[in-house]
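To assess whether the prediction recovers the assembly geometry, we first specified each molecular entity separately, as shown.
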Amino acid sequence: MDEQSDTDNEVPIPPSGVCPSKCIIHCVQEPSNNKLISPKDMLSWQSFLNAAKIRGHKAILDIADAIPENSFPQERVYYHRDCRSKFTLKRDLKVIKSSE
Ligand SMILES: [Zn+2]
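The predicted structure of the complete assembly is given in tokenized form:
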């Protein structure tokens, strides 16, 4: 089981109480723990991007297009931990892939 490979950094919400950005995924309703995190490294971003490609998530693919290859958009992409783990769930991605 590698569905728990979530090692992303937690991004502290600024003191103003304003979120740095909204959750880019928003595949679920606001989780109770709505702390936003961002990709920690290339690997983290790539597995996230891979899920976005399979799901055809335009907002994420647009960001991927806008950044240089072999880099990752730290401080540009934020999401909820819960959203990410659902978004990148391998079991779900497999179902989407096989139904294409
Ligand atoms: Zn979310």
